[in-house]
């Protein structure tokens, strides 16, 4: 099965917005009625940030110091456990997975042994394609590594492929090249 480029183009047109936020949207980003400010209040316990804090990056606000300790960051063990779960669920061998993902045995070994602390999003997508994961499963695997499909054009292409596939990595790479992106998984 090959990816229908016309359907993919229509999907991109519907789901990818490359326009910048308007000036008023940017100006309101740090207003007191913004959900981000509500999040900051919840994390820091402060009720108000006052006029001095409006318009600054929340990361530079004094109330955001040590926020890393308050937010759970995914560990590589969670990702590896989930990867093994899907490999077993799909009844695939390690060579079947890394070959279908276009990875070398050495690269795959580094990922499953935890030597690669945080695999690149493209590597995780390649593994998800190799495992023939659907959209929900792929986003689950990505989230275990602290990654997400976040609306970039390349991510919209991946989203389409997971929702309408399964596709091979070669088919996805053809679509990526069509839209001027680098192929994933080591195959050129």
List the helices and strands and how they pair.
Blueprint: H1 5-15, H2 23-27, H3 35-44, H4 50-53, H5 67-70, H6 76-89, H7 94-100, H8 105-113, H9 121-130, H10 135-144, H11 153-164, H12 169-178
Provide a quick synopsis of the model.
The protein is 56% helix and 0% strand.
Q: In terms of per-residue confidence, which ranges show pLDDT below 50 for 5 or more consecutive residues?
A: 21-33, 49-54, 68-74
Please report which band the strand proportion falls in: under 5%, 5-15%, 15-25%, 25-35%, 35-45% or over 45%: under 5%
Number of strands: 0
Q: Mean of residue pLDDT? A: 79
Element order: H for helix, E for strand:
HHHHHHHHHHHH
Helix content: 55-70%
Largest beta sheet, briefly? none
- Give the overall shape, derived from the CA principal axes: globular
N-to-C CA distance: 20 Å
| Alpha carbon gyration radius | 20 Å
Number of helices: 12
- Supply the helix-strand structural class: mainly alpha
What does it look like?
This protein is an all-alpha fold. About 55% of the residues lie in helices and about 0% in strands. It contains 12 helices and no strands. Helix 6 runs antiparallel to helix 10, helix 7 crosses helix 9 (about 120-130) and helix 9 (about 120-130) packs across helix 10. It starts with a helix and ends in a 10-residue tail after the last helix. Residues about 20-35, about 50-55 and about 70-75 have low confidence and may be disordered.
Name the descriptors:
globular, 0% strand, 188 residues
